[in-house]
Design a protein that fits this description.
Blueprint (H helix, E strand, L loop, with lengths): L1 H4 L4 E4 L6 H31 L6 H18 L2 H9 L5 E2 H34 L4 H4 L2 H26 L9 E2 L6 H5 L7 H34 L4 H29 L7 H27 L1 H15 L1
Parallel strand pairs: 1-3
Antiparallel strand pairs: 1-2
Helix pairs in contact: 2-3, 2-4, 2-11, 3-5, 3-11, 5-7, 5-9, 5-10, 7-9, 9-10, 10-11, 11-12
Length: 309
Amino acid sequence: MERNQTSVTEFILLGFPLDTKTQMLLFGLFSLFYVLTLLGNGVILGLISLDSRLHTPMYFFLSHLAIVDMAYACSMVPQMLVNLLSPAKPVSFAGCITQTFLFLSFAHTECLLLVVMSYDRYVAICHPLRYSVIMSWRVCITLAVTSWVFGVLLALVHLLLLLPLPFCGPQQVNHFFCEIIAVLKLACADTHINETMVLAGAVSVLVGPFSSIVVSYIHILCAILKIRSGEGRQKAFSTCSSHLCVFGLFYGIAIIMYVGPRHGDSKEGKKYLLLFHSLFNPMLNPLIYSLRNREVKAALKRMLHKERS
């Protein structure tokens, strides 16, 4: 097995079957999106760090989400850009496995952070008088660290199951990055256990948390409807709407990708869906939070005013 594994030392990412002119156009477009992702999340992170009014649990978790989105994009977009410039350029076995591990780590961590953020909103709206006690800084730090640790550990389980597999046949990965399902298809052994673990992991970080977030927002909606003041209801809705948009985009696409059916003509469609998930989601998150959140917009105005002064 060990001898067979070393027989394949590199992989070729097939990416998207397009002509050279289209690939150059996509390279420029995706490069712009990548820069906007880093810039947008960097601005959110900078505002939260520098503005003391945003030093609250909600924005503490948002800063972690911004870090994850930047890392998530960095783990796959550069390789995709290289692949657009040089479609036949191989990726080393170690580099491919590392990319798979990083992608899974950041994806799992973002899933768990979104659950933590929904819990924070639930406590803020349903138990406002006890909010400062329940969401103390010690609790917030514990929840954030737990999200990172569990995200990395779950990815490590997939990595430890993937490394012993022999790769002795085809080298072409039918994807634009080393996605775990696409890599498993190249193994020269039975991958039933690996695929079962991928499904089990998806259920544990997608279906379970998705259900808990839905239940949280049902309670939040009931609590908001009980607020007599129209201004109070509007403020409560505004604090939750940004998280709902991010949650819907991330979980909706991820569930289709890893919990939905894996046969038929849906494979190519899922590849394009994952492109949106990995490229546009991290770029849209800061836009959603900045455009729909009054406090973030106010912090940005204060920061710009300071710079002009």
